[in-house]
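Notes to self after the call with IL:
- keep both proteins in one doc
- input above output, always
- annotate only the second one for now

Protein 1:
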Amino acid sequence: MRIIAGKHRGRALAAPEGRGVRPTSDRAREALFDILAHGRFADRPVFEEARVLDAFAGTGAFGLEALSRGAAQASFIEKDRTALAALRANITALGEEQRAAVLPGDALHPPKAGAPAALAFLDPPYAEDIAAPALAALAASGWLAPNALAVVELAAKRKFEPPAGFTLLEERRYGAARLVFLRFAPAP
């Protein structure tokens, strides 16, 4: 697993052994960032100068890729101790300590956000049906700015119903994974 593009292009990312973390394939991550870069959801790359949230962060590949490509800041929420160690090692190896905030904890019960993110990545465990409740919890805790784009990775065949305040924009399938793109519009 490596950073695909940007200032850290080609740099390897550490991943814990075992089944506790299921890193997104380089191919799916590259396709995702190509979509985010080429104006499909905004008139400029969505991640450019953005505050980014990487929930169920694992190795931090989504948030670190965004930082490599020009995001201003990334917050990472992860509860697994082994994954947290790999995440912190990856942040240090890339020299991104100043622009990265690691929050040990559960995305289903997140702490209050210091500032909302314009772009959020959620990669919950495939076997658990927790993407929608996590989105709702993150929104309620102030993690998502109005009009934020949320990208959720799910098992390709898993059913998903967006929670209130989220509009489904598009879905893409990459092997065993499905990427769901949502727009957040909080109720007035």
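Protein 2 (the one to annotate):
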Amino acid sequence: MDEANYQAWFRCFKGCDGRFPLTDVIYECPTCGGLLEVAHDIDALKTRSATEWRALFDQRYMRTDWPYGSSVWGKKELVCPTVENDNVVSMFEGGSNLFWAERLGQEIGIDGLWVKQCGNSHTGSFKDLGMTVLVSMVNQMIAQGQNVPAVACASTGDTSAALAAYAAAAGIPSVVFLPKDKISAAQLLQPLANGALVLSLETDFDGCMALVQEICLKENIYLANSMNSLRVEGQKTISFELVQQFDWEVPDWIVIPGGNLGNVSALAKGFREMHAIGLIDKMPRIAVAQSAQANPLYQSYMHNFDSFEPIQAQPTLANAIQIGNPVSQEKAIDALKSFGGVVEQATEQELADAAARADRTGLFTCPHTGVAFAALFKLVDRGVIKKDERVVVISTAHGLKFTEFKLGYHQDQLQNHGVSAALGNEPIVLPPKADVVRDTIFRAIEKKQQLTV
């Protein structure tokens, strides 16, 4: 069946009447002001059997037929059929490693612990998955004659890197709003290198978010934050991809760090749509991990989601999720209620130690994934997650984007965050003498053996 036979459109997430083309510049429901979502013609999609869809997706996966080699655009019919292939802006995103974390799993008592390494992507985070769809749609709009002077986002680092790279590839001006002194040097460097207009604002992420929405609304600049539901369409392919990597079997649990909460919403949407067209026959449970310094969803969960109150997020080593007023909280709560979800939090000490512990088994963990690991350890200790269950931790970014955090931990320089380096590992300075070097090596080996006995 030709892609033109598949349709997608914006609709209100809360169910208000209205159907809007994906080429419309619209982010909220004009009736209730709620978030939109992308709806797909499920009946049309179901005219192809689940077996046929699986075969098609497997045939395309990581191959060279443009644009289907991208693991996002390999599911184009279920993601964004509106964009013509010539207008797709892709960096061959997706296809990241689903790593069997055997040693770490053995340490914590889980037989099937896996880590979806989304940081192994073009700009080093899962944000690439959503940005390819959003920038491709803007490229389509411009090709159709619409006036889009620029694309813009507020960011704690990773979103700005993805936007700047994809906009640069398309030749579209980009503007990023960053909270001054609250992102890593690598995260600041990325949009600078890709030619974005970088605005370093003396506020936090929530302040940047309010300002970028105001500017975009007044100046017809296209908003690229996760309240734009096109981003969710790309990010939901994490669900498709990890199930595909398990030969179309669904894991028991997915643990994911949560900040603005678009990622949680995206995961749920992907699983719901796979289930609707028969690709899967069960749903996973979802655990959202938040920093204790920025935990509005956790606080709501502790009161059975009866209410949700934004908070003033406090400084956290997991800076990308230092968000006190998440845009996608309604979608996230709906997802957690539907998927038997739980929410756990991690202190600064817990997240730093968890990242270091994971690294000692061969990973290289960003602080946000450290939050997810810390939450996982707690849930296993309490028996919420069982030994025989298959668990996937979503690693959202590459550890190399956070070298200040990692080096600061091992040099025991994170006291301002209340963190001591229980698993610190500093280099040993020695004179260039063979006997001294030899003795040091074997003392270290002996000490390590004693610790593992």
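Annotation: The chain has a mean pLDDT of 95. Residues 98-124+231-417 form a domain with the Rossmann fold fold (CATH 3.40.50.1100).
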